[in-house]
Amino acid sequence: MTNIILCGGSGTRLWPVSRTLMPKQFVKLFDNRSLFQLTVERNAKLCESQFIVSNAEQYFLALDQLEELPHTDTEYLLEPVGRNTAPAIALACMALDPEEIVLVTPSDHLIKDREAYSKVIEQAQRLAFEDHLVTFGITPKYAETGFGYIEAEGLDVKAFHEKPDSQTAQMYLDAGNYYWNSGMFCFKAGIFLEELKKYASSIHEASQTAFENAAKEEMIRIKHDDMLSILEESIDYAVMEKSDRVKVVPADIGWSDLGSFDALYEELDKDQNGNTLNPNHVSIGSKNNLIYGNERKIATVDIEDTIIVDTGDALLISKKGSSQKVKEVVAEIRKNTELHHIHLTGHRPWGTYTVLEENDGYKIKRIEVKPGKRLSLQKHYHRNEHWIVLSGSATVTVNDEEYIVNPNESTYIKAGDIHRLENKGKLPLVIIEAQVGEYTGEDDIVRFEDDFKRVEK
């Protein structure tokens, strides 16, 4: 069995913890493990291999986090643009043996009861072996209006239902045969593709063309125009709501999609006053609060039932019960800032950078380059750069010249110079970069060569 892990999504309801370039599945929320890492660990015990579907940015995050786990047999498929779950799953299945049973899972769900999880996966695997398309129905604990529901009769699916209002959700809960739609699936790769071709032939045809045209080297890389030609559709709409092969396995597995800070609060450890545990929190008479932040001390006085999230460059304060409205905050922020997109520390395939200070006309960064890695050969139109080496040894290319810069030494890159920073050593290279110019945005970059295939065509 192969675990197809879907890594798309930006998790905007967990902003400012989750950003486009560091979505919630890669944030280390539980014992220094991310939801992505927990997904890999959980399913590695049940599946022989893993197939990760992501975009290019998340691919590098996944690579970094997999290095911290025991080795697994892993393949990758990179989407230049997301087209929802039906195309993502189809493209992955096209790379597999038609008889291979696949377990399709999101990468951002929390599952606490691993023993119960193993049992429902075994049940689903048996049904998939009999050529059924299996979905997992989460046993509901309360009348939730934020999930879709599956109406079942035994293991047979009677109907899929959209997110209900509160009165309908309570009716579903009282009926006892309705389940939350988990977004997890199990089936043979070939059977799913047969049903996709039957019920969504245009998606199947466009996906087949995109797969055949894809670059297949270290990973499968779909071409941008081919991906755009595929209809954007979920697996539920495209196949599961139409096929007569669908079965549902009830799953009481300690599941949460962590779709809000209210949901996250329920899963985090708390002190005797109901505040989430945080060494940076000083509490005076405060109760039942979610306190998240490791940048600085957070002091609360007589505060109750509040969500406080501090990430250094953004501060969120919300009443508990209202955190679903965070997506409205993100919509406002998108209008005039990049705070929805990236943290102060940005992760790149070659290492990280942290913005230390930024103002009109300048930006100061701390840059760390991994051993053996190098940035793209590039130039900037609007900024000059000053590099000061703190530790390690920098190999610097400027136009046709290459030279070494050691600790306590510096170099200067003029706007328009074609340049590259490289770490040929065995230890991390750390530099301070001072950018000076009329524009210091991250999009002022032209790449000529890149080890990570990020050169614009």
TrEMBL record:
Superkingdom to which the source organism belongs: Bacteria
Residue ranges constituting the Nucleotidyl transferase domain according to the UniProt record: 3-272
CDD domains xref list: cupin_PMI_typeII_C, GDP-M1P_Guanylyltransferase
EC number: 2.7.7.13
A single MF term (Gene Ontology): mannose-6-phosphate isomerase activity
InterPro entries reported in the protein's UniProt record: GMPP_N, Man1P_GuaTrfase/Man6P_Isoase, Man6P_isomerase-2_C, ManC/GMP-like_b-helix, Mannose-6P_isomerase_type2, NTP_transferase_dom, Nucleotide-diphossugar_trans, RmlC-like_jellyroll
Domain MannoseP isomerase/GMP-like beta-helix: 280-332
Keywords in alphabetical order: GTP-binding, Isomerase, Nucleotide-binding, Nucleotidyltransferase, Transferase
Catalytic reaction equation(s): alpha-D-mannose 1-phosphate + GTP + H(+) = GDP-alpha-D-mannose + diphosphate
Recorded family membership: Belongs to the mannose-6-phosphate isomerase type 2 family.
Name the record gives this protein: mannose-1-phosphate guanylyltransferase
Organism in which the protein naturally occurs: Sulfurovum zhangzhouensis
Higher taxonomy: Bacteria, Pseudomonadati, Campylobacterota, Epsilonproteobacteria, Campylobacterales
